[in-house]
């Protein structure tokens, strides 16, 4: 009777768990950044930059969530916010003046959907992000991106507002991908406009993100019911003065800054 030869002991390389590796792919990030700056609507490139540079940011964010008040409960429940925000009854139920009502108005005004960013990111077939706590925290931060637009006042359907929020996000998460995107946009704006208004607005976004409370630790199902003005005060999110000034100036010039 034939027998199987015993397996020889050898070193097996363990697969890298998404969100834990400190390795960064600068070449891939550079290629994606050049493409994104050529077409600011190419959202796929933003996800590629995040993938290349944010490295162990999800692991750090998840550990921080567990250490924050109420964070353990949020992590234990592991709600998929893109699905929750896509429930018509949930979105329709917010009282006027609340964060949720402003978010509902945002979706109606822009034509965006809660699943929009999810569809873009999942189109890249990043299967190793799906069933892991670090994948969940990454999806959660993706899904609250538009709510951060509402909270900060940065408009979503313009390069300036998006760049300012990305700088804000870098301050909040320390994800290097955010820094590269916002920095690249700010530098390009200097060449396009010949002025520093766009650049200063992006820097303001970073400073506001540093001063604000840590938004990733919020319970968004509760936050959406909070009056918008009250939420901004509680979270220490000021009016974006330089952003509004730059937005007005760009409109006068008929430019976008990119």
What this model shows, in words?
The chain is an all-alpha fold and 258 residues long. The chain has helices at residues 26-38, 43-53, 57-67, 71-77, 81-84, 88-92, 99-110, 116-122, 133-143, 145-152, 159-173, 176-193, 197-211, 220-223, 228-234, 241-253. Helix 2 (43-53) packs across helix 12, helix 3 crosses helix 9 (133-143) and helix 12 runs antiparallel to helix 13 (197-211). The N and C termini lie far apart (73 Å). Residues 1-8 have low confidence and may be disordered.
SSE topology sketch:
Layout: H1 26-38, H2 43-53, H3 57-67, H4 71-77, H5 81-84, H6 88-92, H7 99-110, H8 116-122, H9 133-143, H10 145-152, H11 159-173, H12 176-193, H13 197-211, H14 220-223, H15 228-234, H16 241-253
Low-pLDDT segments: 1-8
Element string (H = helix, E = strand): HHHHHHHHHHHHHHHH
Number of strands: 0
Instruction: Characterize the largest beta sheet: strand count, sense, and whether it forms a barrel.
Output: none
How would you sum up the global shape? Answer: globular
Could you say which structural class the secondary elements and strand pairing correspond to?
mainly alpha
Helix content: 55-70%
Counted by DSSP, the helix tally is 16
Short description:
The chain is mainly α.
List keywords for this structure.
258 residues, 16 helices, mainly alpha, 0% strand, single chain
